[in-house]
Amino acid sequence: MLRFGDKANLWFLIAPPTIWALHFLFCYVTAAVICAKSGLSADLRPIQIAIGAATVVAALLIVAAGWKAYRHWRPSSELPPYDDPSDDDREQFLGISTFLLSCLSLVGVVFVALPALFIADCR
Amino acid sequence: MSRARPFPAAATLGILALSACTGPQSALDPAGEDAAEIAGLFWQMLAGAAVIWCLVLGGSVLASWRGRSLWQVATALKVILWAGAVFPTVVLAGLLIHGLRLMPGLRATESDLRIEVVGERFWWRVIYHRDGAPPVTSANEIRLPAGATVEFILSSPDVIHSFWIPPLGGKTDLIPGRTTRQVLRPTKPGVYRGACAEFCGASHALMALTAEVMTPDDFARWLQAEAGPAAVTAGPGPDAFLRHGCAACHTVRGTEANALVGPDLTHLGSRHTVGAGILANSPAAIARFVAHADTLKPEIRMPSYAMLPETELRLLADWLASLR
Amino acid sequence: MSEAPDQALLAAQEDRLRRVWETPGGWRYWSAVNNTEVGVWYTATSFFFFLFAGVLALIMRGQLAVPDNDLVSPGLYNQLFTLHGTMMMFLFAVPIFEAVAILILPQMLAARDLPFPRLSAFGYWCFLIGGVFVAGSIFFNAAPDGGWFMYPPLTTDPEFSGIGADIWLLGLSFIEVASIAAAVELIVGVLKCRPPGMRINLIPLYCWYVLIVAGMILFAFPPLIAGDILFEMERLFNWPFFDPSRGGDPILWQHLFWIFGHPEVYIIFLPSIALLAMIVPTFAQRPIVGYGWIVLAAVGTGFLSFGLWAHHMFTTGLPIVSQGFFSAASEAVAIPTGVQIFVFVATMLAGRVVFAIPMLYATGALAIFVFGGLTGVMVALAPFDWQAHDSYFVVAHLHYTLIGGMFFPLIAGVYYFYPFVMGRMLSDRLGKWAFWLMFTGFNIAFLPMHFTGLRGMPRRVFTYPEGLGFDLLNLVSTLGAFVMAAGVLVLTWDLVRPLNWKPKAPKNPWNAGTLEWAEGDPESPWGIRSVPIIESRYPLWDQPDLARKIHEGRFFLPDAEEGKRETMVTTVLDAEPLQVLRLPGNSFLPMLAAVFVGGSFIAATFHWWVTTILSGVIGIGVIMVWLWTGTSMIPEKREKNAGLGTVLPLYASGPSSVGWWAMFITMVGDGTAFGSLVFSYFFYWTIRPDFPPPDATGPGQFYPTLAAILALLAWGLMLLARTRNRAGHELKALFMVMGSAFAALGSGAAILWAPYVTGLEPTRDSYDATVWVLAIWTAVHLGVGVLMQGYCVARGLAGKLSARHDIDLQNVTLYWHFATITALTTALVTGLFPLAVGGG
């Protein structure tokens, strides 16, 4: 029987990249709508602020997920490969995978926010 | 411009790279600021890529070497972390920032000259906008003043095309229902070649254009002349032109022909090529194109006039070639 | 467990198993649905399409060998490159992933088969029919000629395009449906059909990749299907989705196409890397170093690959800030790719590498792919892409990534898995010849193309003038292409030469550690003799005597007492045994269903509407028979002893059944397609100042609201029916289902009535057309829901649906969750959104 807690764990694995995806969509959609609606001369200042705020929120959420994953991982107690058929190793494996995904997602969020830093209009 | 020198097929990457970058349509033989910046970017990235490729391949060949001592798992994991994750992240971040900083400059908002380019199946309508004077229409050839920032306004009435003069800069699509922009900053006078870069049908390969970068004075003189009527507007040539129905599609300013379906032929004789870059301009080439348009350029809208007697064809071609 | 097995008992068990799993002979052979047969057909067919598309490429290279050549006409050349790209993508690269996965996944998971064997067979027959239809069109000079990306208006305008575009759209839509079916099956297979004890941290890496890639297919293919629908509506009925003169926009297609098209690249690439993830540890003779890193890389790539699509559109005049976002994501995706490569390097560093043929191909793959990846990093940078885009540089780049990232690893996999599939070894000598010919030929052909492109040669040109510096480069490329083709020929010869010329493979010839090598005899039809308990990532290395114990039937399901095909179902995370799943046996029904559904698509291409409808109705009928006779069968007893003293139920419904998961996953894909249609609506709103246009008259608020209320009613009745049925009020439940069907019919009618009565003309404006397409999509879904409800009622009346045996009702209710969301969304978007923006 699939228990709710088990399922949550696999969902948990994909939470950080999902946050990345939402952040990416937010950046793209806001800029696209503003540029399409106000044309070449549109000032992106307010967008830059919105993207900045969204980036902070996304980064905090990912860090939170990463922190939780780090607690599951407990690198101090045992090193990889976590290949025993035990609850412990399963938790640690999901922990390290989620933690690494959090790091990648954080890098992804920062990368995606960069254009808003260097490009301030809709040309 | 120099032609490519032949080189042995087994040449090394470096020799290949050096001898393979010239040409009238080469992005690596820049004649404009945009192309120069992008070519510079390419050489930097290529150098970086070559180093990284050697390191990765060297590493993996070394790793699969038999008989060397085994690495500790912990050390191998460090390889993944530093070489596989941290190093690419840092390099890519640097590259991304570098690229982003370049972008606004390559799409300047201020320009000295505006040229409208309309992509048609399979030729280019070119309209020079002038301050306080009516626009000047031409076709299949673009002349630009060196040192100016030129803005191109791009559109298409039929299918998607793409406007690309590699020695001057990047490309931009011409999209039905939309207007797009492209800014180029030519620097080096000379004759270059551009091409349609988005697949647009049977004769996509035959949709080229000539781009001539001139000194600003030459350009001003040329534009002045281009704005004027055709050199010869009466006589047997124009008569033949009207008699065979050419005026149903073409304009020759100064004559009755003022239709907008096909290319403006007012100064056809002064252009480098015939048929949007497919034949070097000459009376013979013009006659050939008129007689065999649909085989020279499949699916072109212009019917072929192979049924015209040789004398009529020559009359037409000689007149059109004289329109300098 | 006794130490000396009873030989007589073993023989009797094997006898029973063999009878149950045997592949039929004679003409009935083609009714086989077992993964070992379907997988081989699938692989062989897609490899054939690869050879076909390769020949097309050789003709193109022949044409481009010298300037101003006239080997082929421009029209034929355009068909050649369109079909080359289309076939390599849709008929080779994606299907071969599914083929290989169907072939090796069950054995890797010690399952007897995938959970829906008839669905695999259906998918194969769809693929074969659609593939032959699309590929064969070139012999009639009717092949699609608008490029594999099919940009409108070139492909929608009847002046510029012909039947080839319809063949592309309908033929491939048909295959895409089959791909999604395979994806559903593979996801359920990895999540639910693992052997007991194979927890999530012990899954073979290949299976991780399969899970992720199948998930990507689920989100990537539906936008293309939505795009295909819009496209075909424009072609058949002149609905102006991409026609700018009536409010449409050709760029919308580019978005929908590339939202599919870029993940597609990774859908092709990841399964091949997955093969390397099995091969490298075997030849390093040690477990992979960095298992968690691989999971990070695969999942990360899966997600990031959905944020790259617009880098195919950098020259369409997108604002540079938008280009920046896609540029950034495109650079970021290189990070997980780097991780994957270094996991392999690290594994080799920590092991002692045996350099066999698969490793030769793996190393070649790395050399080519890393280069392609590096040029990928270059074109991901928008300014450079403005030059490189649509030039031969990109041709070179994409072939470096696909040949290096997909083809060479695949061939490594072919050499590695051939003994597993055929029980014979391929030739080392021919393998080396093929490798060196293909490797050098490939580089001679494609390395110069980087410079051909930067020297200004655009893609998709049937010729080029001399003197621009393209001449020598192209000649060299052509020579290289033929050298590579020679290598492919050697490889093909090695594959097809008679089996008895090849040495018999020893058991587990590479000394691999994973389960697919446990059986060691492709002749035995049962896949695995008994389903073992797994305690390691490399059980054959770590669990002593495992293969022998499996053979002696010491684990689960060593017998087929009842004469039925069976496999184990376990939990998602920890693989605890849940159920013994009865699998349907061989049948011609999947083939028949594919023939008629395919016939419907093919007839539509030629506008033979009567045949289209007849064939479609018969197809649906066949599927109904298939479902009726082959799914949710009520077992003769509640549970059975699965072995090792474990008693497991034979029937499960709701979230613990595989069918429920399949429905859930299918509907996620279906919802993605619907989401893409909704995206189209808002896309128009974004780019148009007047959306809805001021002269649009509908669809009003009344009928959409009515439709929403009725849909909610239908949904509520289904929920109630499910609960009442569970509580034993089976007849009452059936009446509720019928009531729900009436409400659903009313809802569907209202949603269609709304645009009709308010006078929306789908050919007038893209707004009208979009509202209509949302309404029709919703009505069709409600209609399919009613069909399912009718099926439930019939099952109930036939005594096949009861309080305990309610799979059908559970799954149909699950469908109704999604159908209701669809109806509500359509009502909200078409009915209320115009109010919100002050139109309508």
**Count of distinct strands of chain A:** 0
Q: Major sheet of chain C, described briefly?
A: 2 strands, antiparallel
Report the order of strands and helices of chain C: HHHHHHHHHHHHHHHHHEEHHEEHHHHH
How many E strands of chain C?
4
- Range of strand content of chain C: under 5%
The CA-CA distance between the termini of chain C, in Å, is 76 Å
Assign the CATH superfamily of the largest domain in chain C: Cytochrome c oxidase-like, subunit I domain
Summed up, the helix count of chain C is 24
Identify the CATH class of the largest domain in chain C. Answer: Mainly Alpha
Overview of the structural elements:
Chain A is mainly alpha-helical. Helix content of chain A is 78%, strand content 0%. Chain A is built from 3 helices and no strands. By secondary structure, chain B is α+β, with helices and mostly antiparallel strands. Among the domains of chain B are: 94 residues, no CATH class; 86 residues, Sandwich (Immunoglobulin-like), CATH 2.60.40.420. Chain B is built from 7 helices and 12 strands. In chain B, helix 6 crosses helix 7. Chain B starts with 12 loop residues before the first helix and ends with a helix. Chain C has 840 residues and is mainly alpha-helical. Chain C folds into 3 domains: 311 residues, Cytochrome c oxidase-like, subunit I domain (Cytochrome C Oxidase, Chain A, Up-down Bundle), CATH 1.20.210; 232 residues, Cytochrome C Oxidase, Chain A; 160 residues, Cytochrome c oxidase, subunit III, four-helix bundle (Four Helix Bundle (Hemerythrin (Met), subunit A), Up-down Bundle). Chain C is built from 24 helices and 4 strands. Chain C has a two-stranded antiparallel sheet. In chain C, a hairpin with a 6-residue loop joins strand 1 and strand 2. Chain C is globular. The interface between B and C is large, with 95 and 94 residues.
